[in-house]
Amino acid sequence: QVQLVESGGGLVQAGGSLRLSCAASGIIVSIGTMGWYRQAPGKQRALVAHITSEGSTNYADSVKGRFTISRDNAKNTVYLQMDSLKPEDTAVYYCNAEPVLTRLAGNYRALEVWGQGTLVTVSS
Question: Vertex 21, ends 92 and 71: CA angle to 5°?
Answer without folding.
Answer: 125
